[in-house]
Design brief:
2 copies of one chain form a homodimer. Chain A has about 200 residues and is mainly α. The relative contact order of chain A is 0.10. The termini of chain A are far apart. Chain A contains 9 helices and no strands. The longest helix of chain A has 27 residues. Chain A has a domain of about 140 residues: Tetracycline Repressor, domain 2, CATH 1.10.357. Chains A and B meet through helix 6, helix 7, helix 8 and helix 9 of A and helix 6, helix 7, helix 8 and helix 9 of B. Chains A, B: It holds the Pfam family TetR_C_6. Chains A, B: InterPro entries: BetI_C, Homeodomain-like_sf, HTH_TetR, Tet_transcr_reg_TetR-rel_C_sf.
């Protein structure tokens, strides 16, 4: 009887080995051979799934984006049906920050991709792919808030969506560099949201 | 007669070779051998200046920080003695963004260091070293603006200084990833400054 191979479990093991290596040594240091060893399979078995390093990287990037999406969706669902746009945005933004081991690894793999994406158009397409959707989702929430009179005067939902994404990128960088603590970064995010949502509900 | 070697020129050539390699292949890809070849000297000659890769990296990081400081100082001087805190901050912040080849290379080398610094405490110390000074300088400018009644109400100079640094970090990331154009990023920076400096001059 041929040995049954759980392909999904194996892809998962490969992705996890890659994440571990990428978040400690960077992606440049992650050879197919290292990843195979980390996933406890042979190089030949790994190449059954990914023939080149770029194929493996593309898979891992999609996986990371997918995991982050799922984590954020769960957080929003946990807020329940009465969540305000501000609640939803706050959960999303916190979900994007390196506040625990999982999100820290995801963040560092993202930076490692960024470094490759700068010089590789195909990877750049994927690295930037999630941003317009994220921005559109944030802008929708901000438009909802504006309709409810909760947004500060003169704020444009599209611009504010992108400003939030940029701010969280910077806050995250300086958490990882120990320039500020997670607590300080979260306080700064909350103050930004305070200003953004300083409209008066109609009355 | 012994051959005269201009050590400063040679260090400069080494740093430039390292920057070129780091901004195209990342720092992981920059071996001492590659850098020697790029600087058109032998490996032995390179090792006269730097025995290890880490020594070379520390030198290059200090050099990058020094060049960025100098560029920004020149911009501020060019503004002349009547420059307002807003003018000065705007020049500094633009100087930190990847708007031309030089600043783009500097930015990418900075990200490459960041990836190493995450796992190396000595490098992390250096990578974060410039931030508190930068933050203090920005906070000083913002305090001056507050004294002149130019700062928006309720803004704390220290917090706003760090928010500016974080925002510019994120704006820069998404310029390099082609998510927004330089023009769009600069417009977003100016809108942020508009809000920050929306106080009324006394009298």
């Amino acid at each position: 009887m041929p040995k049954q191979v759980d392909h999904e479990a194996r892809r998962q093991a490969i992705a996890e080995a890659l994440f571990r290596i990428a978040s400690t040594k960077g992606l440049e240091g992650a050879s197919l051979r290292d990843v195979a060893a980390g996933a406890d399979i042979s190089l030949g078995q790994l190449q059954h799934y990914f023939r080149t390093k770029d194929e493996m990287l593309l898979f891992a990037l999609q996986r990371i984006n997918g995991l982050a999406d799922q984590r954020i969706r769960e957080r929003i669902e946990a807020l329940g049906g009465t969540a305000t746009p501000r609640d939803i945005l706050r959960e999303c933004l916190r979900g994007m920050m390196p506040l625990d081991d999982k999100s820290r690894t995801g963040y560092l793999v993202g930076v490692a991709y960024f470094m490759r994406a700068v010089h590789d158009e195909a990877l750049r397409g994927l690295a930037q792919e999630g941003i317009p959707q994220l921005r559109a989702f944030f802008a929708d929430q901000l438009s909802r808030a504006r309709a409810d009179g909760e947004l500060a005067e003169g704020r444009d939902p599209e611009d504010e969506a992108m400003r939030l994404i940029c701010l969280v990128e910077g806050l995250s960088t300086y958490i990882v560099l120990d320039v500020h603590t997670k607590r300080q970064a979260l306080r700064m995010l909350d103050r930004h949201l305070d200003e953004l949502f300083s409209g008066r509900p109609p009355g």
